[in-house]
Amino acid sequence: MRSFPGAPSHRPRRPQRVALLVAGAVAVGGLVAPTAMAKDDEDDLRDQQHQVEDQIDQAQHDIDEASHEVASTTRRLERAVGRLSSARQHLQAVRADLQDARALQRQLARALVRAQGRLDRVALELKAARAEVARQRKLVRDTVLGIETRGNADLAVLDAITSSGSIQELLVAGTAGSMILGREDQALAAYETAEAELADWKAQVRAARDEVAAQKQAARDNLRHIQGLYADAQHTRVQVRDLVEGARHARAAAVNARKNDRAALQRLQDREQRIKQQILQLVQQQQDDSPTYSGDTGGLLHLPVDGPVTSPFGYREHPIYHYWGLHNGTDFGAPCGADLWAAESGTVINEYYDEVYGNRLYLNIGTVNGSNITVVYNHLSAYDVSEGDHVTRGQVVGAVGETGWATGCHLHFIVMKDGVPVDPMGYL
User: Any idea which UniProt keywords this protein has (predicted)?
Assistant: First the structure.
C-alpha cells in the first residue's frame, strides 16, 4: 500500500531541510552541478530552486490530501468491486438453486398426480373386492341354508342306500350327496379367496395414501424452499444494485482524485524541469572539471545497499496506479534503517523530499566516457551527509526507508546519464 513520510528516523540523523519536488513516473533527471560552475551563478540558481521549493511547500498539504484521497478511493473502489463480485456470484448461485427447485417442484407435481391416480385405481379395486366378498358371503350362506333345508347330507345318502331299488338308483343318490358336499367346499374356498384379495387391496390403498401424503409434504417443503430462495434472490438483487451504484461513485471519486493528483504533480514537475534546464544550460556554457573516467562501465559502481534486486529497470505495471510505464531504476530489497553506500566518490548536489520518491539524494560522480553520471537514492528514511559534501566510494550516505509512494522498505536506485535514466545494472 502507499506510504507517506512522518515517522521518525530509524537512527539519529542530522536535521534536514525537507521540501516537495514532485517527479512523475519518469524521473526529472539529475541536477548536475559541475565543480567548474561559477560560484555566483550556482548560488543564483540554487536560490531560484529554493524559492520554487518554498512556493511548492504551500501546495504540499493539498497534494498529500489528494494522494491520500487517491489511495483511499482506490481501496474503497477495490472493496466495492470485490463485494459486487461476491454478490453477483451469490445471486447467480441462488438463481441456479431456484431453477433446480422449480424443476423439482414440477417433478413432485407429476409424481403426486401419478400417486393420486394409483390411489384412485386401487380404491376402485378395493370397492370391487368388497363387493366380491359380500357376494361370496351370500353364496356360502345360501349353500348352508340349502343343505339345512334338505337335511343332513349323510342321512340323505344313507336313506338313498336303504331305499334304492337298484344299483343305478344307489349310484345316482350317492352322486347327489357328493355334489351337495362339493358345493359347500367350493363356496367356502371362493369366500376365503375374496377375503384375501380384499385384505391385499386394503394394504395397497394404505400404501397409495401414504405415497400421496409423502408427495404432498415434499411439494410443500420444496415450495417453502423456493419461497426462501426467491426472497434471497430479491435481497441479493437489491444488494447488487446498491453495490453497483457504490462502485460507480467510488470509481468516479478515484478517477477525480487521480486526475487532481496528476495535474498537481505535472505542474510541480514542470517547475522543477525549468530549474533543471537552467542548470544544464549553465553546465554547457562552462567546462566541467569534475572527475572523468573512460573504459568499461561494468563494475564501475559500488553496490548502493546490501540486498537483492527486487524489481529491475524497465517497463512494468505501476504498483499504485497500475498503468504500464518505465520503472526508471533498480529496486533493492533491504530493511528500513539499513546503510546506503556511496556508489562512487563524488559530490552530493541535492537532497530534498517529494511526494513520489520521498527523501532523495543526488550524488554526482563526474564524467564517464564523455557523459555526466549522477546517481540518485530514493525513499530514504534519513541522511548521513549534507548537500555539498564530498563523499568517498563506499561511505554511508543515508538509510533505507519507505517514504513517498513506496510499497515497503527498499531502495529505488537511479543512474542518470546526462540527465536521462539508464539501467543501473550496466554500471554495477
Answer: Coiled coil, Hydrolase, Metal-binding, Metalloprotease, Protease, Signal, Zinc
Question: What's the longest Cα–Cα distance across the chain?
Answer: 174
Q: Which residue has the cell 527486487?
A: 310
Amino acid 60: pLDDT: 47
Q: Which numeric CATH code is attached to 1-36+287-428? A: 2.70.70.10
Q: State the pLDDT at residue 198.
A: 75
For the chain, the average pLDDT equals: 71
Residues of the chain with CATH 2.70.70.10: 1-36+287-428
Beta carbons of 277 and 269 less than 8 angstroms apart: no
- Over the Cα atoms of the chain, what is R_g? 52
* Nearest C-alpha neighbor of 330 from the set 307, 359, 347, 346: 307
Q: For residue 302, count CB atoms less than 10 angstroms from its CB and return exposed for 0-12, middle for 13-18, buried for 19 or more.
A: middle
CA dist 24 and 262 (Å) reads 8
Q: How far apart are CA 85 and CA 289, in angstroms?
A: 63
d(CA 334, CA 159): 132
Reduced to 3 states, what is the DSSP secondary structure of residue 315? strand
The model's confidence at residue 34, banded by pLDDT at 50, 70 and 90, is very low
3-class DSSP state of 98: helix
Provide the 3-class DSSP secondary structure of residue 117.
helix
Phi (first) and psi of residue 317, to 5 degrees:
-85, 130
Residue 361 — φ and ψ, nearest 5°?
A: -140, 125
Write down the pTM of the prediction: 0.45
| Cβ contact 265:63 at 8 Å | yes
pLDDT digits (tens, 9 = 90+) for 112-155: 777 777 777 877 877 777 787 777 777 767 766 665 555 555 44
| Contact present, 417 and 366 (Cβ < 8 Å) | no
Which backbone phi and psi does 313 adopt, to 5 degrees?
A: -65, 140
Q: What are phi and psi of 32, to 5 degrees?
A: -75, 125
The residues of the chain that CATH labels 1.10.287.1490 are 89-247
Q: Which residues contact 423 (CB under 8 A, 6 or more apart)?
A: 312, 313, 314, 330, 415
Nearest to 388 by CA among 130, 126, 28, 42: 42
Q: Tell me the H-state helices in 25-152.
A: 39-150
Domain 89-247 has CATH 3.30.2130.10: no
What pLDDT, on a 0 to 100 scale, did the predictor assign at position 341? 98
Distances 52 to 271, 299, 352, 363, 417 between C-alpha atoms, Å: 7, 37, 12, 21, 25
